[in-house]
Amino acid sequence: MTSASELRSGKTHKDENFPVASWIIHPRHRDLILAFYNFVRTADDIADHAELADQAKLSYLDLLESELLGQGDSQPEAVNLRRALAARAMPPRHALDVLIAFRMDVTKSRYETWDEVIHYCRYSAMPVGRFMLDVHGESTATWPASDALCAGLQINNHLQDCGKDYKALNRVYLPRDALAQAGASAEELGQPRASAALLQCLHALALRTEGLLSEARSLSAEVKDVRLGLEVAVIQAFADKIVGLLEVRDPLCERVHLKPLDLLLCSAGGISAELVRRIIGRRTAAKPAPRA
């Protein structure tokens, strides 16, 4: 078989909607995070490959899994992640969970309900946040807020790319019941602009995603690692800005991705707010109790 590396789309960690192993994260974690990213990106590109047959995609995903588990050394992304995890005595469970989502991408092209989409996010997005928390030694008590943030990021991406996913992959992540309730159909995603009904559906889904992001807002305060807290605050700021665009724009014909200036301003705002919160929090904690 061709190496999975040769099937990569060319997308890197610098092309994502959120920072990956940015300068904010401590250098001791970056190699492991990038190894995880490259494994996930390779598997994602295989699932989305325009020319591979479905069975070939599933075979490649199985090969990546088997080599991640130590059964072979032909796939660099799997071998590199396996070794990086072993060096930290970490299990591969989060990477294995993500592979479940990519197999779903190959075999499932429509979702009936919001709950089905969230189930997909349980494997496509939530393991990424859980992995980051495990890398930093955070408590599993942080997982619910992280899950909400990761699901929000994933659905933001679904809404941003809904037209492209339909045209290139015949894949629709908009729930059928939400489309039906608005009087829209998946086939309208192939048009140059959204109909009034489809736009109503997209905006309603964006509003529901905003609710997920609200559930995630406590995460930066819950994590103990200061650098990770700052990174989470930046990611939250990106997600909030994107969902705001999705609530008022048509992703079929209007820009719903952040510009470089948006990224800079969101990063500065997120870092500043989190630093102030942590400084004030420390001062409050250090303040002596009043005398009786």
UniProtKB/TrEMBL annotation:
Molecular-function annotations in GO: geranylgeranyl diphosphate synthase activity; squalene synthase [NAD(P)H] activity
InterPro entries named in the record: HSQ_synthase_HpnC, Isoprenoid_synthase_dom_sf, Squ/phyt_synthse, Trans_IPPS_bact-type, Trans_IPPS_HH
Pfam families: SQS_PSY (PF00494)
Coiled coil segments of this chain: none
Source species, domain of life: Bacteria
Biological process according to GO: terpenoid biosynthetic process
Listed SUPFAM superfamilies: Terpenoid synthases
PANTHER family: BIFUNCTIONAL LYCOPENE CYCLASE/PHYTOENE SYNTHASE
Cited NCBIfam families: HpnC (TIGR03464)
Protein's UniProt name: Squalene/phytoene synthase
Organism: Rhodopseudomonas palustris (strain BisB18)
